[in-house]
Each structure stands twice: as C-alpha cells, then as structure tokens.
Amino acid sequence: MPSTDTRITIPNFMASWPSSGKGWPWDATPHVESESIKAESEQWMRSYDGIEGAFVDKIIRGRFPDIACLIYGHQTREHCLLQALIMLHFFVIDEVTDHEGDAAVREKADAMARALRNPDSLASMPADTWVGVRMAADISARYHAIGTRTSWQFFVDTFVDYLDGVVDEAAARDKPILSRAGYLALRTKTIGVLPGMAMALIECELQPGFLDLDVAKSLMGLTVLILIHQNDMYSFDKERARGEDGHNGVRVLMEERGLGVQEAMDCLGRETGDLVRQFVRLCENLPRLEDETNDEHFRVVRDGCVSWIIGMEVWYTQVTSRYGMQNLDKDRSYRPAQC
Fold this sequence. Notes:
It contains 13 helices and two strands, in the order E-H-H-H-H-H-H-H-H-H-H-H-H-H-E. By secondary structure, the chain is an all-alpha fold. It has a two-stranded antiparallel sheet with strand order 1-2. Helix 5 runs antiparallel to helix 7, helix 7 packs antiparallel against helix 9 (193-200) and helix 10 (214-241) runs parallel beside helix 13 (292-319).
C-alpha cells in the first residue's frame, strides 16, 4: 500500500540498553587491525576467477567486513578475518539468489552444503564452479584449521539451515506475502546469525547438550528476533524503493493488520523494545550453571549475543552506506525514497 508519510521515524527500540561503563562485556570499539582485515578480505574476494569487478565493487561499498570487525574485534585477528570472509560470502549468496528461481537456488545451495562438509573438494573443483561454492569450501578449510570439532558442527549445521532458508525464500518470492508467523519462521533461518554464534564459540569444545540448554536457547533466540526486527526497520526504505519489501517485517505487519508505514514501524519498535528489555534482564540476572565448562561457554554465548546486537546497531546507523541511515536526524527520522 502506498505511504502518505513524508517522514518516517525508526523507533528507539534500544532505549533500555545499559549505558557504557556499567559492567557490560563489550563495547563498540573497532578492531585495531580493522583496516588490514577489510583490505585482506577484499583481496580474497577479488582473487576468485569468474566474479566481475563491478559486482565485487558493489559488495565492498556495502562495507560488510565492517560487521566482522565490530562484532568480533575482541577475538584474534585470524578469527575476525574468517568472519569477514563469511560476511562477504553471505552477501554474494544474497545478491545472486535474489534474482534466481528456487530450482537454480536449490542447486547452488546443495553444492555449497557439499563444499562446506568436504573442504578438501576445493582442490578438485573445476575452474568454472560457481564462486559461492568455491568460497564455501575455502571457508570450511579455514574453519577446520583453527576451530574445534564441536563448534564446527554447530557452524556447518546452522549454515546449511541458512542455505535451506535461502531456497525457501526464493520459492516464496512471487507468492502472496507470508503471514507473520510464516515470515518469522523463514527469516529465523535466513538471518544468518546462528553460524555467527558458532564463530563466537570457535575455540570452545562444546559438551553434549549444551546448545539445548534453555538458558542458551533463550539468549540466542532473543538475539535472533531482535536482529530480524532491527534489520527490517533499517532496511525497509531501501527494499521498498527497489520493490523488494515483500519479505520485510514492516511490510508483513502493514498487510496483515492494515497499517501504514509509521504505524507498522511503531508496532515493530514496541515489540523489539520489549525483546531488548527481556534480553537485558536475562543478562543482568545471568544464572550460574553447575557445570563449569558449560557455564564458561554460556558466558561466551552471552558476550557474542551482546556483540551482535550492538555491533549491528553501530553498523546500520554509523558505518554502512547501504541503507543511508547516517542521514537519520536526531529524532531517528528520514525522508522515504517513495512517499
């Protein structure tokens, strides 16, 4: 539905987040080597045959390696670089599959899943193998070289689930807008946060059942929902201008409840603010797990979730030129591309 709003305000859903200096585990200070990490990840991407320079330029302009530097800047340079490569891989997948049918996307997803599970396959791949498949094999080999066996299993399982979600998204692209429940079920797979949580645990040999603990699932589940809504609010204007907002939570609310853009933004902002408050309460009242190893790993998960929420907020509002959110005024409002 067309909007009559001449300015749109993105709600301040982070209003209840504790201010810095209150004992929280991470701040948004970029990695000291962030420029070299960004340069090396760009060089990695340009090293692949079969990928056009203009396509690489488009992705580099999006400043996706900055995400890794913001979220993983407290880890080793090697880990941060690997996540920067993963972020570039995500957006190669996103840019290409957004314009293909579900059969073609399924073929690519299955090939990437095989490459992830068998990194040695890179050496025998034909030169004309799609670049996303070759990237997947390279990322797999790099992870195997520095990560634990159990964190790797978490990573590959959630990455393959993400790929399945990309296929489902392609199949739903030309169909009526999904229900809210259907949209969130799909977006939980395609948001790509859980492979990132595996990266946070890359040095941890996880004990059986750790990922099924209620407290760990609560932290990660809240984080995933917050990040879905956060992305929807910040990306809505860009997606609407390109006619790609059919799979955006703001549009889903507009269609399902008969709301205007600002009404849907406000509704989603209130819901996200409630989720943020739940997350903060959980972090401030963090239970102590009886098993010392599980407890240590649980706190790694907590720190990773905090890093993702804050890091993405910084990226959307201060770093990326992809969404133009640096143009938000002091009231967090902007002039929509289409009124």
